[in-house]
Amino acid sequence: MSVSAAFLRLAVLIALFGIGLGIFMAFSGQFELVSVHAHINLLGWVSMFLYGLFYRSFPTAERGWLGRAHFGFSTIGFLLFVPTLTAIKLAGPSLPSVLGGAIAALLVLIGAVLFTVVVFRHTGREATPT
């Protein structure tokens, strides 16, 4: 599967999860997880979908290891970040949740740095989207 397809498919699954959490909060009146909801929607759905659109627009960007590494770091970071932030919001900070959150944030940051490198490599003067 291409990096673009992987990001796009993951993004829409995350969107469904974010919508579900939003509906749950709305009907239950429990809004303790509003920041988790925001991170799911922005870090997961929006960012991942935009990543997928970029890779779809610049197909040469997904060749090689950088695009796959970007997908891996971003995905693992997101999947670790959401439960650790949820734990912090519901039970308060603890060493495992804060450490997990820090590791997750670092993985997401590494993914963002890799994406920055990919964008700069593939959007120079000679690069054109297809």
Structure characterization notes:
The chain is mainly alpha-helical and 130 residues long. Helix content is 81%, strand content 0%. The longest helix has 28 residues, at 95-122. The two termini are 19 Å apart. The model has no long low-confidence stretch (mean pLDDT 93).
Number of helices: 4
Cα(first) to Cα(last) distance is: 19 Å
Helix percent reads over 70%
Structural class: mainly alpha
Shape: globular
β-sheet strand percentage: under 5%
Low-confidence parts: none
Fill in the keyword field for this structure.
130 residues; mainly alpha
List the helices and strands and how they pair.
Elements: H1 3-28, H2 34-57, H3 65-91, H4 95-122
Short description:
The chain is mainly alpha-helical and 130 residues long.
